[in-house]
Structure to design on (283 residues):
């Protein structure tokens, strides 16, 4: 476990009394409130200095309400230093007003869309969506990519069409860790890492492994490859709480990652757990 307080770049919270989350109906284990006080308890002995909230796929019509609610939560938990909401980027130029309103909130650092959930495999290459992503730098916003490994080829095309956007890949593009598959994920990640405007988040690995029987050894080749591709200057830590509770408690995930980084220097560890997050999300 790190000997210093870390920055968690992937925190989810939801209050079912406030907002609607249709996807939770199919995940009974998660289908209850998960609030900031629950997260505090879940961290256990792990010291968390700062947090970045990531949108939780509430009803799309409520994306602004979600951002406003988390902003209010941050008044009671000042360690929440960043918010990454949803936005209707597929509107292209028509998303400007929504982005301007979001960006007026200094806590809002970027936008996330879970491209993995889109029925159309070409969704991220539609002209309207590409244009919406291209507009993000105008508002000082980055983009969190959430895909699965089968979508890497199209994602590469999206990123190449948006050279001025700062991207971060959530959950290392969700490779099939449970099946032990490394290819063609490895090639796609290496190609992605060649683009200097892309960073990568070490998060969500345990839920791509066997949730009931995963071991740190299952994760090691994936962590090693990400570090080999992106280096210690463009990789960040993410807890992915509470989604990760389907496979682990919070301290166990941190300990598993820390063990995988056993050869890293103190400076490299501080970059991964703290400084890179502060730089990318401007927290």
């Amino acid at each position: 476990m790190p000997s210093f307080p870390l920055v968690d770049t992937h925190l989810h919270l939801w209050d079912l009394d406030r907002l609607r989350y249709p996807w939770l109906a199919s995940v009974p284990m998660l289908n209850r409130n998960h609030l900031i006080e629950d997260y505090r308890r879940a961290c256990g002995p792990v010291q968390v200095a700062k947090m970045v909230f990531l949108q939780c796929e509430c009803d799309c019509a409520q994306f602004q309400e979600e951002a406003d609610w988390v902003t209010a939560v941050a008044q009671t938990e000042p360690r929440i230093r960043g918010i990454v909401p949803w936005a209707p980027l597929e509107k292209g130029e028509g998303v400007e007003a929504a982005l301007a309103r979001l960006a007026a909130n200094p806590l809002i650092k970027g936008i996330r869309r879970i491209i993995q959930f889109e029925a159309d495999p070409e969704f991220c290459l539609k002209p309207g969506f590409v244009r919406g992503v291209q507009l993000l730098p105008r508002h000082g916003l980055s983009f969190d990519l959430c895909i699965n490994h089968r979508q890497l080829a199209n994602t590469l095309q999206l990123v190449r069409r948006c050279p001025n956007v700062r991207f971060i890949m959530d959950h290392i593009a969700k490779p099939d860790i449970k099946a032990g598959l490394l290819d063609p994920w490895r090639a796609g990640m290496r190609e992605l890492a060649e683009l200097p405007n892309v960073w990568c988040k070490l998060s969500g690995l345990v839920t791509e492994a066997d949730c009931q029987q995963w071991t740190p050894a299952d994760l090691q080749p994936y962590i090693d490859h990400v570090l080999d591709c992106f280096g210690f200057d463009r990789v960040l830590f993410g807890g992915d709480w509470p989604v990760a509770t389907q496979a682990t408690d919070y301290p166990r995930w941190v300990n598993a990652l820390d063990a995988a980084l056993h050869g890293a220097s103190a400076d490299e560890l501080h970059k991964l757990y703290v400084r890179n997050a502060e730089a990318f999300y401007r927290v």
User: Anything to note?
Assistant: The mean pLDDT is 97.
